[in-house]
């Protein structure tokens, strides 16, 4: 492996470690968004619970969201305080940006 390949691999490893660190946040809390359709998982369009929603980026428009992050939080892993929606929103946002760069 050349020095350039090793440096590139180190850079990729660092990016992956940063992403893993962000996704391992103790708690994420959604504050609002634009540029996403928030689709109910079970068809219940009256539910305001984010745990019931799937975030889908709207093609051809800007995306924005507000979110709070905690490195540790007493509610981490507590099923009464789910934050899977927030994690899904972050992944959907990043995947949409990656797709737009192709």
Structure commentary:
The chain is α+β, with helices and mostly antiparallel strands and 102 residues long. It has one domain. It has two helices and four strands. The protein has helices spanning 3-23, 84-100, and strands at residues 27-34, 36-40, 53-57, 64-70. The strands form two sheets. It has a two-stranded antiparallel ribbon with strand order 1-4. A two-stranded antiparallel ribbon has the order 2-3.
Share of residues in strands: 15-25%
Low-confidence stretches: none
Indicate the radius of gyration in whole angstroms: 17 Å
Helical fraction: 25-40%
Widest beta sheet: strand line-up: 1-4
Instruction: Output the structural class.
Output: alpha+beta
Specify the number of helices: 2
Give structural attributes.
4 strands, two-stranded antiparallel sheet, single chain, 102 residues, two-stranded antiparallel ribbon, alpha+beta
């Amino acid at each position: 492996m050349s020095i350039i390949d090793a440096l590139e691999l180190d850079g990729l490893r660092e990016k992956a470690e940063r992403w893993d660190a962000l996704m391992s946040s103790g708690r994420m809390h959604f504050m609002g968004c634009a540029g996403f359709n928030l689709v109910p998982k079970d068809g219940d369009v009256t539910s305001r619970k984010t745990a019931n929603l799937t975030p889908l980026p709207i093609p051809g428009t800007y995306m924005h969201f507000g979110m709070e992050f905690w490195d540790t939080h007493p509610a981490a892993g507590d099923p009464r305080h789910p934050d899977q929606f927030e994690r899904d929103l972050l992944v959907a946002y990043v995947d949409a940006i990656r797709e737009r760069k192709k």
